[in-house]
Design brief:
Elements: H1 2-21, H2 34-42, H3 46-51, H4 68-78, H5 81-88, H6 90-99, E1 109-112, E2 123-124, H7 127-133, E3 137-143, E4 153-158, E5 161-164, E6 168-170, H8 172-182, E7 188-193, H9 199-205, E8 212-220, E9 223-233, E10 251-254, E11 266-268, E12 276-278, H10 297-309, E13 316-324, E14 327-334, H11 340-346, H12 351-357
Parallel strand pairs: 1-2
Antiparallel strand pairs: 1-7, 3-4, 3-7, 4-5, 5-6, 8-9, 8-13, 9-10, 11-12, 13-14
Length: 360
């Protein structure tokens, strides 16, 4: 309890220093109590005061910004249990996409102690099982109940052995032991082919990691509308594109949903605290981000619309879409998506948009 209190105090000290450094004229004096006002009146903590750069936007717009958790409770109240289960269960969602002709990331196998049941997807655990299915190639492994990139790892299989993230290498027996440990924290590990971005995206990032776009749809007045897109841009050697409030070192870009062009690009000056800045060019490659066109954008819009139409009683979804050389595929469906990444990417709150279009 004492440690938590110290952490909270430290957060408010950082937010206060940011607010004070933003005072340039007499009309900015309200920033002196900005972090406390944001928390007590708007429910936005110190870290979000900095994450949303509230000291740099008009105070009248602060109330437009939303906090993740209350919004997720609102999503839950309007989403049926059946629709939630379908979106949450990565295997069921994959099978649903196959049945409805929706392009999605393939599932090669499941590493698990659970019996196969009715699933046609191979279930693996022993070293022999792994060796029989995992032919030489590049794979991506993620926990069936994971989120925000936690517990994921890349896997490379060659004729001479196996290598995986974290500098691990060895035999299939070594991999089996590693997976046994990982299965203490999840029911299954999902094995997928490692996807590679379209060359226009790779020209920007020059990374082996996959950059995906979060596309948010809402069912409104009987139609599916795309209300936002946030492109998560890998920087460096990371296997995942999670933004994590800037702590990952990756970037997020707001996308114009009509044209598919990137209209902002945001990163954090620090990995330990969200100190947001505009990033016009990729820091590793020097490639221009703002104004760059995402390939296959009409196909992306058609894909998420088709996917949303296929699931009844689902009002809003944050789709994670990978844009590959031959077109877009859905990686995941998130019915309780975080709103913070959109608010950072677009430099605005989404309260008015969601209040207008969500029921209840």
């Amino acid at each position: 309890m004492k440690l938590r209190a110290l952490n909270v105090a430290s957060d408010y000290m950082r937010a206060q220093l940011y607010a004070m450094s933003s005072i340039k004229r007499l009309s900015d004096i309200h920033l002196l109590w900005g972090p406390v006002y944001a928390r007590t009146s708007l429910g936005l903590g110190a870290k979000f005061f900095s994450l949303y750069s509230l000291a740099e936007v008009p105070r009248r717009t602060w109330s437009d910004y939303l906090d993740n958790e209350p919004l997720k409770a609102r999503y839950a109240a309007i989403t049926s249990q059946e629709a939630r289960r379908l979106a949450d269960d990565k295997i069921k969602f994959f099978e649903h996409c196959q049945q409805h002709g929706i392009p999605t990331a393939n599932i090669i196998a499941l590493i698990t102690k659970v019996e196969r049941g009715a699933s046609a997807i191979p279930h693996l655990l022993s070293a022999q099982d792994l060796a029989s299915v995992l032919v030489p190639g590049e794979y991506f492994v993620k926990p069936s109940n994971g989120s925000h990139g936690k517990g994921t790892f890349s896997l490379s299989v060659t004729s001479s052995g196996v290598q995986w993230s974290g500098g691990n290498s060895g035999s299939f027996q070594d991999l089996a032991r590693y997976c046994e440990t990982a299965l203490q924290f999840t029911r299954m590990l999902i094995v997928q082919p490692k996807l590679s971005n379209h060359h226009l995206i790779r020209n920007i990032t020059q990374s082996k990691g996959l950059s995906t776009v979060r596309v948010v749809t809402i069912r409104y007045a009987g139609k599916i509308e795309v209300i936002a897109g946030a492109f998560r841009i890998v920087v460096g050697e990371s296997d995942v594109d999670n933004f994590s409030h800037g702590a990952s070192g990756n970037l997020v870009a707001g996308v114009d949903v009509v044209s598919g062009k990137m209209i902002t690009s945001i990163g954090s000056r620090s990995k330990s605290w969200p100190s947001m800045k505009d990033v016009v060019v990729h820091p590793a490659t020097g490639a221009t981000i703002i104004g760059a066109q995402l390939p296959y954008w009409p196909e992306v819009l058609a894909l998420v619309t088709q996917a949303h139409e296929s699931i009844d009683n689902l009002h809003t979804v944050g789709w994670d879409v990978a844009i590959l050389e031959n077109g877009p595929v859905i990686v995941e469906a998130n019915w309780r998506y975080d709103i913070d990444i959109l608010q950072v990417a677009y430099k605005k709150g989404f309260r008015k948009v969601l209040d207008e279009k969500l029921p209840g």
